[in-house]
Design brief:
This protein has one domain: Beta Barrel (Porin), CATH 2.40.160. The longest helix is centred in the first third of the chain and has 24 residues. Strands 1, 2, 3, 4, 5, 6, 7, 8, 9 and 10 form a ten-stranded antiparallel sheet that branches. About 10% of the residues have low confidence. A hairpin with a 4-residue loop joins strand 8 and strand 9. Helix content is about 10%, strand content about 70%. It has about 210 residues and is mainly beta.
């Protein structure tokens, strides 16, 4: 009797260990996803040089609806932890508000608009399998964005951080929700309006969508 109980206990442990091992493998491989969300884009310019004079630009922000397409790859590290990489591309132009220049000279009270478009995000993605259908993950990466001042676009780079969760609906199809913070580096742009702008951008977004694991 005791030996039967012992064998049963060992068998249960083996089966449990096998099930645990399968959890992370469930999420391994390539995937592709599309998403839509809401983004708060914030623009700040510390200094604007125009016509040999210095001006200050008012801060601006605007809430818009981004859309994106992403691809990724995941590999398991142990029964629960995984590590992956992802690449995301934003399709549309996102306004970041209007600004007003203040100072003395011909550009006093001049106004303009700011926009972001076509961000490309490359990230390292550590993840943890909460269950066989739920994957919690974080994103640490780099983002390049086209930053526009009065319709004149320049390339700006920065740090991108995110956290999200994937919930599998079927063996291959999942829904996801993801929150991101993007801090673009301070950059100087010589614009076609004759101004040299020192700019920064901080953006927050919440994305959701559907994906397919191959």
């Amino acid at each position: 009797m005791r030996s039967t109980v012992l064998v049963a206990a060992i068998a249960a442990t083996v089966l449990s260990t096998g099930a645990m091992a399968q959890v992370s493998h469930r999420f391994e491989g390539f995937d592709a996803q599309i998403g839509v969300g809401v983004q708060d884009s914030n623009f700040k310019s510390n200094n604007v040089l125009m016509g040999g004079k210095n001006y200050q630009a008012s801060n601006s922000s605007e809430v818009q609806v981004p859309t994106s397409f992403g691809i990724g790859y995941m590999t398991s590290l142990d029964s629960r932890y995984l590590l992956g990489v992802s690449a995301d591309y934003g399709f549309n132009r996102l306004g970041a508000g209007n600004y007003t220049l203040s100072g003395t000279g011909p550009a006093k009270c001049s106004t303009g608009n700011v926009a972001l478009r076509n961000p490309i995000n490359l990230s390292l993605v550590p993840a943890y399998a909460l269950s066989s259908t739920s994957l919690l993950y974080a994103k640490v990466g780099y983002e390049n964005t086209q930053f526009g001042i009065n319709g004149d676009y320049h390339s700006i780079n920065g740090l991108a951080l995110g956290i999200g969760d994937k919930q599998y609906i079927t063996d291959n199809i999942y829904g996801y929700v993801e929150a991101n913070y993007i801090a673009n580096n301070k950059s100087n742009f010589a614009n076609s309006d004759g101004g040299v702008y020192q700019v920064q951008s901080q953006n927050y977004n919440l994305m959701m969508g559907l994906g397919y694991k191959f």
